[in-house]
Specification:
The complex is a heterodimer. Chain A is of the alpha/beta class. Chain A has a single domain, classed as NADH:ubiquinone oxidoreductase-like, 20kDa subunit (Rossmann fold, 3-Layer(aba) Sandwich), CATH 3.40.50. Chain A contains five helices and seven strands. In chain B, β2 and β3 form a beta hairpin. Classes of the chains: A alpha/beta, B alpha+beta.
Chain lengths: 178, 430
Amino acid sequence: MVLEAKGDGKKKLKVGVFSFTGDEGCVIVFTELLNEYFFRWRDLVEFKYARVIQQKNVVKDIDVAFVEGAISGFKEEKMLRKIRRNSKRVVAIGSCAIDGSPSNHRNFFDEQTTREIMPILRKFPYRKKVSPLHEIIRVDETVPGCPIVEESFLNILNKYLIEFGIVGRDSNEKGGKQ
Amino acid sequence: MHQHSFDINIENLSKIEGHADLYIKVRKGEVLDAKLKIVENKRFYTQAIRGKMFNSVPQLVSRICGTCSVAHLSCCTEAVENALDFKPSDQTRALRHLNMYGLMIRDHALHLYIFVLPDIFGVQSVMELADKDEDLVRQAFIVKGAGNRLCKLVGGRAIHPIFSGVGGFLKLPEKNGIKKSIEELYSVRAFATELIDILLESDFNFTRKSNYVGIANENYNFMRGEIMSSEGTCIPERHYWDHLNRVVIPYSQATGFRFEGKEYTVGALARMNLNRHNMHPDTLHDVPEAVAKFPSDNIYSNNLAQAVEMLHSIDNAIEIMETWDFKQEPRPVIKPKASEGVGVIEAPRGTLYYLLSFMEDGRIRYGNLVIPTAQNQIQMEKDIKAFVPELLSRDMERHDIEHEIEKLIRAYDPCMSCASHFLKVRWEDG
């Protein structure tokens, strides 16, 4: 059966956009993708959590969580687990989330430099090492790049729009675009 | 007489770049404590750049901040070239200006349209704004898109540009792309002017005295000039650090700064207060009413200042692309040596400072960075402390007070990713 290619505005993909330790470059790319896709996604996507664009956010009942950044602090680790518990799919976006770099410089510091930053690590406090998401939770998909490659992000989003029955299977255009 | 007692604790402020918490303690109508905590985790770039080669470090520091990566890259490149006594060609300078104008358009547009306009229209997000005024949101994304495409044209990418390097650009913008960008920028001028009109009508007001600091020059460019303050200081860029005092804020992941011993403000408001007369003639001609609002001590004028800067950046970008015929230049040879160099530019949120010291083989011995949001931190906190009693006197509910303070913080357009990643602090344990 071919589903209607255009969303009917009722059933939407429930998306979360999360940011951990990093430069937010991937989330900025997401805000730049809105230039072209805002009105298209308005019919297809409901943002349950996207602190960068809205004030009211919940970590609950999420279909797909897009997560940027590496995990450097304990609070982040806790939040990441919460995201995993409340999301059907988790996508690591950008190289910090995928392999920790370039947010994980301190993992490679020599002894002297590590000693230098130790008071800060203890004070706030930080985890012993900076970790990519997959070292802490199960990750379903990745969108590579520093920052993310726009095309790959659109492909993954499109894949889930189809998988969750928001758009029809013949809707192969990127990002749910007709 | 208002005898309110309450605590405000906002974790993770929304619609800003990066992560920050706010804590306010009010007892019997008196603000006992107000703390703005930058909770963004540090990535220790100051340490990470040591030992890296002079020609690779701009790409590395670009990763300090996604949204203003062009600013970090440009400022770092300037510091490297100053250290190694290299003078870029006029064409390279023009391209760097063009890249910075593109950054200002897309970054200011993000802040104004996506973060600020929902506040002005009394809604919680750009999605709700689209339900109220769809045309305005369409304009928003067209303007933002024009800035984004200009950045891509010049830098190869909008975030972490790949064409820009020490010595010059690896690839020149394509002629056809330039033609299209000029047309696009002409077409968005009217939208930028409309945004200025909306902000002119806004009655958001919190007026306080501050010292405004920023680069001033003959054509209001963001790359070079002298550092001026509204209290009358005028110093060469390379001496900026000598006028700063670093202040450790124990609960924040970023240090604060004072300028000549006092809190100060950097950013679009400071630049407009100091240098508005030197803006592009077309900008001055088309929005005289907006320009006449400055100098201003109202922190919300920072929004209007950004909008005028957006128009100014559009006009300058058009002018550069219409006058220059970019031609491939021979790649310069830059020799490393033991040296030290300073780069100072105006990033979207204010003055950005890089000091880099090199070893003989071109590797970095030491780096010192001063970031705009960190410089505004002390003034921001002072404003919050003064703002709460004013809100209490208006008999506001706690929830509304929270929202008003968020709006105030947003007016500074803080970027926490930037603020928390540069410093070297030795905390005293205990």
